[in-house]
Amino acid sequence: MQSLHDFQHRALRFSIGTSDCAGVAFDHERGLLFASCLPDNVVYVFSTEDGSLVSKFGSRGTEAGQFLNPWGLAIDHEHDRVLVTDYDNARVQLWSLTQQSFLGNIDSAVSSMFEFNHPQGVAIDRHHRRIIIVDTYNNRLVFLSSIDLSFLFSVGSSRRGTRPGEFDFIQAAAVDHERLRIVVTDTCNHRVQVLSLIDGSFLFEFGSQGNQPGQLLYPQGVCIANQGRIIVADPGNNRLQAFTHDGHHISFFVGERGNNSATNEVAFDEHRGLIAFSADNQVHVIGANQWLPDTFTWQPYVHRYATSWIKQVVSTMTMIRSLVDESAISMIPNEILFEIFSFL
């Protein structure tokens, strides 16, 4: 077992002092972290380099571009927008990712099928160009086209249930694109359900009520790391837990004990190997590889985000390599060099 205190010495990158964060999401292309704040009714945008505040948007209210408890966040790069579930206004808001200007709402005014009841989570299905909305109090997932925002289908019903494919107060969903799956935290059933990304049909479930490794107590946030590993925020036990893609427990670490210390939300930055989670009225960002070995995998464009000194070193080594034949250094790809130096 590891604690947040351990990460403060080894893996903790920074902590952001927000109050009661409801959702976190990485914009890995721009190196940004979005965090929705319930009491402020604002979405904050931070740099993933040092946690500095970049911008913010929203205000309290019921009008267009205002929030009453902004909750879940999802980044839709294809359409250059960020989606925010507006919990008490029973809608999902669309904001420009580049300009951070208000674009529109998804609510009952658009379609009677969007009569949400306190929606919390939201996710992007890039494979099928769909948006998945966690309609919490209706115990259903709503699928709509990310192209024209038309209703496609829903999974679940307003009636709570315990059988496979039924939900009791679901709060979050994450998409495993590689395996074409949706991972859903079925909160009051103290479990995680894994569904087909194609039609939402039930595949399997894992977790049970308790405080032992692999058990859950009101799971909330969820995200997918590389290798399909599933990271679940387990607020009832004040911890994050990691599972394999087929639901076998890997490890966990606990947050600090105290008021408002529950670990509620979690997000993964696939480009930088970072995990963000909310606890203690803050958002903490850690190096995922310090908790889950081999978490960070190379992406061809990671060099764009490298620091200037790393770029200079790799450039120099590339020049040297071009002058030396059949040496060990001539066999090392630039991608590996960037990874090596990024961990120094």
Task: Please describe what this structure looks like.
The chain is mainly beta. It contains 3 helices and 25 strands. It has 2 domains: 2-290, 6 Propeller (Neuraminidase); 302-342, no CATH class. α2 runs antiparallel to α3. The longest helix is centred in the last third of the chain and has 16 residues, at 308-323.
Characteristics:
Neuraminidase, 344 residues, 4-stranded antiparallel β-sheet, mainly beta, 3 helices
What is the fold's blueprint, element by element?
Layout: E1 2-3, H1 4-10, E2 12-16, E3 21-27, E4 32-37, E5 42-47, E6 53-57, E7 70-76, E8 81-86, E9 91-96, E10 102-106, E11 122-125, E12 130-135, E13 140-145, E14 151-156, E15 170-176, E16 181-186, E17 191-196, E18 202-206, E19 222-224, E20 230-234, E21 239-243, E22 249-254, E23 266-269, E24 274-279, E25 282-287, H2 308-323, H3 334-342
Parallel strand pairs: 1-22
Antiparallel strand pairs: 2-25, 3-4, 4-5, 5-6, 7-8, 8-9, 9-10, 11-12, 12-13, 13-14, 15-16, 16-17, 17-18, 19-20, 20-21, 21-22, 23-24, 24-25
Helix pairs in contact: 2-3
In short:
The protein is mostly beta strands and 344 residues long. 9% of the residues lie in helices and 40% in strands.
CATH architecture of the largest domain: 6 Propeller
- Give me the side-by-side strand order of the main sheet: 1-22-21-20-19
Radius of gyration, CA atoms, in whole angstroms: 20 Å
**How many strand units?**
25
As for the CATH topology of the largest domain, it is Neuraminidase
Distance between the termini: 26 Å
Query: Which class of secondary structure composition applies to the elements?
Result: mainly beta
Shape: globular
Give the averaged pLDDT, no decimals: 86
